[in-house]
Amino acid sequence: MELDGKPKVGMQFDNLESAWKFWKSYGGKMGFGVRKDFSNKSKKDGAITSCRFVCSKEGIRRKHKRDYLTVNPRQETRTDCKARIVLRHLNEKLKVKEFVEEHNHVLHLPETTHMLASQRHISDVQAHQLELADESGIQQRATYALMSKHVGGRTNLGYTRLDMKNYLRTRRQKNMKYGEVGCLMGYFQDQNSANPLFFHKFQMDSDEQITNIFWADVRMQLDYAYFGDVVSLDTTYCTNNAHRRLALFSGFNHHRGVVIFGAALLYDETAASFKWLFEMFLKVHNQKKPQTIFTDQDRAMAKALQEHGSHFLRDFKACMYEYEEEKEFEEAWNVKRCLNPDVDIIQFFKHFERVVEDKRYNEWKCEFEAREKLPRLRCPSSPMLQQLAEVYTPIILDMFQDQFDLFSACCIKQRRQSESLIEYVIDMYKHKGEWEVLFHTQEKSVSCTCRRFEIFGILCCHALKVFEANDVKLVPDQYILKRWTKMARTGIIFDVNGNEVEEDPKFSHTLEIRSLCQRFVKLASEVTGKDEVLILRSATEEVIKKVEALRLGKIHGTNESDDPIIPSSNDMSIPTGIKKRVGIKRRSRPKSRVELQLRNRKASRSRSHPTFTHSQSESTDIGASSLVQLENSFSFTRLLMDQSEGSVSLGALEFGGDKL
């Protein structure tokens, strides 16, 4: 039966579904909406005995006794249209017994029929595409425009933007059907299924409600094992509709890209919460303490850290932030979508995963560039630069070459020697300050008062000047930190139980699945003829049946389910809910103590010095370290290094051992 034909009395259909599909197609062609009026079923076998399909404008709106209370009533759409088709069951078929063609209203244009409710439908394939776009962080407006382009315009899409919005909202509501606790535990359950080494912990109050949440996936554990010598802890983000703060443990990889070592959602910022947070952080990382941790020096945080660390290190030259303005910082981190105060807990984790994945992919881009392009040496004949070009990553090599360029401006002002120790006093051309450098002739070791190597892990220009004076052409091995080299990620990492930590234990299986997906997509895109489509469809359906049968055979007799394990309230160790916190919705990141002080400091300087120049800036930085005068201005970092105006507001906590 052709779906674009005109109904006729006597036409037959195999079932109700085919009859309805025909009537809906006819309505779309003619320009009117359709709906089902009624259907009768047999009491014996439940088969359809008769039914009637009508125009969507059939009937009239019923009056209600409270209609007079309606201020703005909806416009009338019913016109008591009599257009209809009546079918009756006869000889195992549905036969058309009556057909009324005439309408008492204006029919829609072909360009607008796609807006009729009966002509709008989101298919399974389209629904999957919408879900992927939503999980990828694409805005609904952009998603709708992209989908329309794929099918040649909005008229061919089959649904409106409002339909898409309603579908995604309904999907989010279904995802939350088990409540926040059930969904949260389901999310962590899925992560553990993907990799058993995924770590997560809850902290609960006396009412068994979740207050704080900490988690770290396997990649975070590996990153900390390789680059966890210096850690930055930031808690200045209010993340979701529960008004919880996002605490991020982050650091630098060997390409100076951001890596994350762990994350937490904190109910409050008390000493007890921070103490629990640091305990969980050390637990997941096998009790390995960072050499230095940078914080916003919150008093509660400081109190908690004192129980795990030795003392405060009030030096900010290695601060993790290089962004002067809040907007630049947020754009660099790309956490704006995570900080939306309207998102629920599940949406937050999806947005957070995407941000973390973007940061990790940036490392692969840097790795590709390092292997694809040869390093550019400013002095190609230098043995030292040739040596480091083989081991350093490009960005670290550039940082070293900056110091290599500066050492030509260094001058040896004094030289005192005693046995195997030589003491140098270095100054620099057109730079204020002096630096003392100790050189041990036997060990070829050097120590400078600027402490650049201890802070950045890269030799300073003063040390390079001393190496030149002692005819040291290559950098000693002890001054080439592995964390800055191309081999930084080599080595086997073990967890608390002594098991090897693998980022993806199913890596080979994942590669095979990706390869199959690419082959299927390529095959489907190359199919052109109708016969080829039928062959591909039948083969696909056969494969699906075999895979489903195999899957059912494997799980036969088990209690496996896709639903999360819903906790029982009788278990005192199981949370009964997520503790709610009253707060104010924020669209921007709340400023930390240091940012407020820096803003006030800038304002006071601008008021007192309306024509502020660079020379005046140098004259006011009396108490700053001389190293500040040599470094390229990292803007926000340089402000943090300014120790001339009272107490500092950010702090780095040293956990023990030598500083980096």
Detail the topology: elements first, then pairings:
Blueprint: E1 12-13, H1 16-30, E2 34-41, E3 48-55, E4 84-90, E5 93-100, H2 124-135, H3 140-150, H4 161-175, H5 179-194, E6 199-204, E7 209-216, H6 218-227, E8 230-238, E9 245-252, E10 258-266, H7 271-284, E11 292-295, H8 299-306, E12 311-313, H9 326-333, H10 345-372, H11 383-391, H12 394-406, E13 410-418, E14 421-428, E15 431-440, E16 445-448, H13 452-456, H14 461-469, H15 507-526, H16 530-554, E17 577-578, H17 593-608, H18 614-620, H19 626-630, H20 636-641, E18 651-654
Parallel strand pairs: 7-17, 8-11
Antiparallel strand pairs: 1-5, 2-3, 3-4, 4-5, 6-7, 7-10, 8-9, 9-10, 11-18, 12-18, 13-14, 14-15, 15-16
Helicity level: 25-40%
Q: What class do helices, strands and sheet pairing give? A: alpha+beta
The averaged pLDDT comes out at 78
Identify the overall geometry. elongated
- How many beta strands in the DSSP annotation? 18
Distance between the termini: 79 Å
* Count of runs of 4 or more consecutive helical residues: 20
In terms of DSSP E residues, the strand content is: 15-25%
Spans with pLDDT under 50 lasting ≥5 residues? 310-333, 557-572, 610-660
Radius of gyration: 34 Å
Largest pleated sheet: 9 strands, mixed
